[in-house]
């Protein structure tokens, strides 16, 4: 234990001396950590502090108080009169103790009997292993120190005004004030200002020392909050929900035209006889067919729908003979000026009214159906009429061939 006295005097008490002065039996002390509680009984044994100070060799004459540094930077102040045995101030007259344990040197102060709210857990001080316990003996008196803060609760970055006052001491003694703001900084003077950064509770301590070694200290907690945001509420953009993307429904597939259903811009054909679709002829081989007379309406043939649903354009027929010299009557397929021959049956959907009347008038039992249609319902009527028309067509074709032949 290292003891510092008035005028710079120092003394040291060894571990052996402390152990030799420690009684074999323990004494029960109360340890209180919260004001107002009964306290926890704890066995203690050690060398009385007054005996340890006397063993150090430091002169105690005229000493007024003892200080013991705490781990948090503050100090315990004990009047020298309270260290007497039996103690006039501590509970049960028990003395303060200095003891040695396996790792450190310890100081323990009993509860103050006159103060039911006294807390002595902060004065149960232990040193770091290997270090000596430091005690200071001072002349003068223990000062009564008061400290205040304005405001005691503030925002980060806002200055706090701090003020301290001290009472007591020897006559004519002047005081010096030292501030510790609890954030690693400090200041001097009875009044000061400090700006805290960050947030939390800071313990501000002011230590007052008189010119005749009187002393005392006081602490005050300062609550510092996180500064509020400086952004105006209206400046914060309000997120607008994005409209949902509506997908267009897929277009229904185009249904192909139903069989036997004519397009809207075509008139249905009156021909009821099924026929095969003729092969397309060369578009440059034949001139356009003559238009029918307005007085004699001719039924238009129905265009057969293709596989994709689009109607097939009508075929046109050539009035000239084929380049190879063969007659139209001998071709089973292809265009014909008066109709088409399909598998031995003459289809009259391109016959004029006069030709159709001439073809059907000579047939017995011919049907009186609508113009442009040849009935095959009578027995033998359709083949006979076909032969007559075929003979006429052959004669016409022969005439045209002879006329177009160059003269010998």
What is the topology?
Layout: E1 2-4, E2 10-12, H1 15-20, E3 27-31, E4 40-44, E5 47-48, H2 49-56, E6 63-69, E7 75-79, E8 97-100, E9 105-108, E10 124-126, E11 134-139, E12 144-150, E13 153-155, E14 159-167, E15 175-180, E16 186-188, E17 191-195, E18 200-210, E19 215-225, E20 340-342, E21 345-347, H3 353-361, H4 381-404
Parallel strand pairs: 1-11, 13-19
Antiparallel strand pairs: 1-2, 3-4, 5-8, 6-7, 6-11, 8-9, 9-10, 12-14, 14-17, 15-16, 15-18, 18-19, 20-21
Strand arrangement within the widest β-sheet reads 2-1-11-6-7
Distance between the termini: 158 Å
Provide the structure class.
alpha+beta
Query: SSE string, helix = H, strand = E?
Result: EEHEEEHEEEEEEEEEEEEEEEEHH
Compact description:
By secondary structure, the protein is α+β, with helices and mostly antiparallel strands. It is built from four helices and 21 strands. The strands form six sheets. The protein has a five-stranded mixed β-sheet with strand order 2-1-11-6-7, with helices on one face. Strands 13-19-18-15-16 form a five-stranded mixed β-sheet, with no helix packed on it. The chain has a four-stranded antiparallel β-sheet with strand order 5-8-9-10.
